[in-house]
Amino acid sequence: MKLSFTVNDQPIERDVSPDLLLIDFLRNDLKLAGTKKGCGVGECGACTVIMDGEAVNSCLVLAVQAQGTSVYTVESLEKDGELDVLQRAFIENHAVQCGFCTSGMLMSAKALLMHNPQPDEQEILTAISGNLCRCTGYRNIVKAIGAAAEAGPK
């Protein structure tokens, strides 16, 4: 099947198998390895990307379902060598430990801030509720997202 959509603002056109998962297309075909393959069943959130403004588990989306959409991966956050305000906030607030969940957390947080630039703590917790972290205890992640919201887009 012919697939045509944008990834990180770059137009993509490829022939793909109808059963190819979006995560596998991103990681294997496009070499965007920042999107992590975790549980494979939509439970951990490590594979979260933003599709048409919404955080989605790319392990649950067929690549062909991305037809005509705009997808953003964690690689889209850095611009011209400059980290996104969220990435800086995660570093400054010690919200990264092993790092496996980080890309999914960042993308869930980015989707939240796109829709609600000033979320309260409960809104942050709800936005990241689909992302599992086994290391941090979430406090510093929530703090980092709040700090990014307070700093605003840069």
Give structural notes.
This protein is an alpha+beta fold and 154 residues long. It has 5 helices and 5 strands. Strand 1 (2-7) and strand 2 form a beta hairpin. Helix 2 (85-92) packs across helix 5. The longest helix has 14 residues, at 102-115. The radius of gyration is 15 Å and the shape is globular. The termini are far apart. The model has no long low-confidence stretch (mean pLDDT 96).
Unreliably modeled segments: none
Could you tell me the number of beta strands?
Answer: 5
Overall 3D geometry? globular
What proportion of the residues is helical, as a percent range? 25-40%
Strand order of the largest sheet: 2-1-5-3-4
Structural class, from secondary structure content? alpha+beta
Average pLDDT confidence is 96
* Percentage of residues in strands: 5-15%
Order of helices and strands: EEHEEEHHHH
DSSP helical segment count: 5
* Rounded Rg: 15 Å
**What gap, in angstroms, lies between the N and C termini?**
39 Å
Main sheet makeup: 5 strands, mixed
Compact description:
The protein is α+β, with helices and mostly antiparallel strands and 154 residues long. Helix content is 32%, strand content 15%.
